[in-house]
Design a protein that fits this description.
The protein has about 90 residues and is mainly α. It has one domain (about 10-75). It has four helices and two strands. It has helices at about 10-15, 20-30, 50-60, 65-75; strands at about 40, 45. A two-stranded antiparallel sheet has the order 1-2. A hairpin with a 2-residue loop joins strand 1 and strand 2 (about 45). Helix 1 packs across helix 2 (about 20-30). The longest helix is centred in the middle third of the chain and has 14 residues, at about 50-60.
Length: about 90
Amino acid sequence: MVENTYLITPKDLAERLGITDRCLRERRATGRSLPKYVRVGRFIRYRPKDVEDWINSLEAEGGGAESDIMQEKDMSSNNHTTIAKA
C-alpha cells in the first residue's frame, strides 16, 4: 500500500529554508545541494521524507551546503539598492 503523503512546493521549501524561490531554482539549475525532487508534469515537488533526510545529512556534514544556503540568503538580502536623496 502506498503511504498517503503530501508533496512540498518549491515556495514552501524556500520559505522553510529561509531563502527565495529564485535561489532554490538557481541551486537546482546549477546542481548544488538540495533535497531530491520529483516532477509532476511541469511542476517540481519535494517529498517531506527527502527534505528531512537532506536536512539531516547537512547536520552530519557539519556545514557544507547549509552554509552555502545561509551565504546566499545573506547575499539576497543585500541585493536591495538604497537611493539617497541629496
